[in-house]
């Protein structure tokens, strides 16, 4: 029994040792496999990194850095290059709207340019290969294919592009040239600091803010194919030839001149004519406005040849601008003709309303065209400045124009307060001084009174139409007003009314006679003698 128990214990112990040994062996195997895998992975990664580093280090490159460090460029030309591929890297500050390097020439014309800018997300880069046909905005070259390679992106406010250009040692209109050229010409440029985010290879760009020319020794670029590193300094044989700052004066001058004309001078011309009532200075202002507008149009036409978006002369801003300027020329000619004829006839002409209405169209059309022009120039924020200027002019000039209008209305009302159609009050009804009267004035009053008695019916009313009134309507009595003349002449009521008025007029004449008689007492005998003949003549006229 004891032996049996001892045997079973020995078997159990042996089994336990076997299990422990198996577990230990398994753990060792797992650990060994893990260690082997880790070592293998580490070795592989190290080998890959080393290989990559070796490849990058081995990639020959010609390198250039602009003096202002706005552009860094490196180029690799594979020594076994049956496909005519090129490897290149470009770097520069992301504060620039775009950065570009061109090769094949020291001018824009026929250069192949690699232009990079932020994509629509602002986190990566769009690279557009472009070719310029002249000193103007380059156009996308559809036949040029560029591949994006690892390391491309925007980091630390810096654009970085690594890429390969397929079969691009030559292109339409140009080529890189011989790889033994120690003074190969390149150009570089960067855009102004504005926001440009686009995935399009045809994205509209603004004119460069700085640009230059540099040369490189292409023999330094020939070597093992690979992406060149961003350079820290110029390679041997690389140097900057020139650097220029572009002020873009034409664009600014075009905007300033046209805003000055349509927001400043033309509204001022209205104020000069309507408020100051000065046709001469109005003409000077209109001539000056037209001259400045023509200069602005010339600058605009020249600018239109520089950008892809305006080369075809199809934009609304350009079309409206030409129409407005043609209207301005027509308005000036009509105003000139109107002024010449007016000086001869002192009457308005058929040109006047056309001149006025052209002005009413030209000014708002020019201002609206300005709001269209700023977005076309990729300066949409300047629309707010134009709006402020326009509102300011409206606030200043509107009260002046309203004041001038009220003044003209008052003059028109004052001119219409007289009698109807050329009729003036009879001289004998004019106000006279009661006590202080000179000889000349007394003589005039006396003669008027004599004439009144000669034709007691009074002078016939002036008819502007040239037609004489019926005989019975011409029997005007002294003191009778043209406004109160009865409209139903010939009726019994009108006859009675005419008789009453005749009596009143007679009494008025008597009063005037007594007044004159009293004045004549103070005069000499000759004046009194002339007066004594008056009653006989008066009686004869009444007979």
From TrEMBL:
One of its GO terms (cellular component) is membrane. The keyword DNA repair does not apply. InterPro entries: Cellobiose_DH-like_cyt (IPR015920), Cyt_b561/ferric_Rdtase_TM (IPR006593), DOMON_domain (IPR005018). It comes from the Eukaryota. It holds the Pfam family Cytochrom_B561. Residues 69-191 form the DOMON domain. Residues 1-22 form the signal peptide. Keywords: Electron transport, Membrane, Signal, Transmembrane, Transmembrane helix, Transport. Gene3D superfamilies: 1.20.120.1770, Cellobiose dehydrogenase, cytochrome domain. The chain crosses the membrane at residues 252-276, 288-307, 319-337, 357-378, 384-405. Its main location: membrane. It is found in: Membrane. This is DOMON domain-containing protein. The lineage of its organism: Eukaryota, Fungi, Dikarya, Ascomycota, Pezizomycotina.
């Amino acid at each position: 029994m004891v032996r049996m128990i001892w045997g079973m214990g020995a078997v159990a112990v042996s089994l336990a040792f076997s299990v422990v040994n198996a577990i230990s062996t398994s753990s060792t195997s797992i650990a060994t496999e893990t260690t082997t895998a880790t070592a293998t992975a580490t070795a592989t990664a190290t080998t890959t990194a080393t290989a990559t580093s070796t490849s990058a280090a081995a990639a020959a490159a010609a390198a250039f850095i602009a003096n202002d460090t706005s552009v860094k460029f490196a180029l690799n030309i594979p020594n076994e290059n049956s496909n005519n591929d090129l490897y290149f890297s470009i770097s520069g500050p992301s504060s620039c709207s775009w950065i570009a390097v061109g090769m094949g020439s020291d001018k824009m014309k026929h250069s192949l340019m690699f232009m990079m800018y932020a994509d629509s997300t602002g986190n990566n880069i769009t690279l557009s290969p472009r070719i310029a046909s002249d000193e103007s905005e380059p156009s996308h070259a559809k036949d040029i294919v560029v591949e994006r390679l690892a390391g491309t992106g925007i980091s630390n406010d810096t654009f970085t592009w690594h890429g390969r250009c397929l079969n691009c040692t030559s292109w339409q209109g140009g080529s890189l040239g011989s790889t033994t050229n120690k003074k190969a010409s390149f150009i570089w440029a960067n855009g102004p600091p504005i926001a440009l985010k686009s995935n399009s290879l045809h994205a509209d760009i603004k004119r460069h803010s700085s640009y230059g020319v540099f040369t490189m020794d292409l023999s330094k670029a020939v070597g093992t194919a690979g992406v060149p590193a961003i350079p820290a300094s110029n390679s041997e044989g690389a140097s900057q030839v020139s650097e220029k700052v572009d002020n873009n004066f034409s664009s600014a001058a075009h905007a300033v001149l046209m805003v000055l004309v349509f927001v400043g001078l033309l509204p001022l011309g209205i104020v000069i004519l309507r408020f100051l009532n000065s046709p001469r200075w109005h003409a000077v202002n209109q001539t000056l406005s037209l001259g400045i507008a023509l200069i602005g149009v010339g600058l605009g036409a020249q600018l239109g040849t520089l950008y892809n978006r305006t080369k075809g002369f199809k934009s609304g801003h350009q079309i409206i601008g030409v129409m407005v300027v043609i209207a301005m020329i027509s308005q000036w000619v009509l105003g000139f003709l109107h002024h010449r004829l007016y000086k001869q006839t002192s009457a308005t002409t058929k040109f006047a309303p056309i001149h006025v209405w052209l002005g009413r169209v030209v000014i708002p059309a020019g201002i609206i065209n300005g709001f269209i022009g700023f977005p076309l120039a990729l300066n949409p924020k300047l629309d707010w400045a134009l709006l402020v200027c326009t509102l300011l002019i409206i606030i200043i000039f509107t009260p002046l124009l309203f004041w001038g209008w009220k003044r003209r209305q008052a003059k028109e009302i004052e001119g219409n307060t007289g009698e109807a159609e050329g009729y003036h009050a009879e001289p004998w009804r004019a106000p006279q001084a009661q006590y202080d009267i000179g000889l000349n004035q007394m003589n005039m009053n006396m003669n008027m009174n004599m004439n009144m008695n000669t034709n007691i019916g009074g002078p016939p009313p002036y008819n502007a139409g040239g037609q004489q009134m019926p005989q019975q309507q011409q029997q005007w009595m002294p003191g009778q007003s043209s406004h109160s003349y009865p409209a139903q002449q010939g009726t019994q009521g009108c006859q009675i009314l005419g008789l009453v008025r005749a009596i009143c007029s007679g009494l008025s004449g008597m009063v005037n006679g007594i007044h004159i008689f009293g004045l004549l007492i103070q005069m000499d005998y000759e004046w009194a003698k002339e007066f004594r003949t008056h009653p006989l003549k008066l009686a004869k006229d009444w007979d």
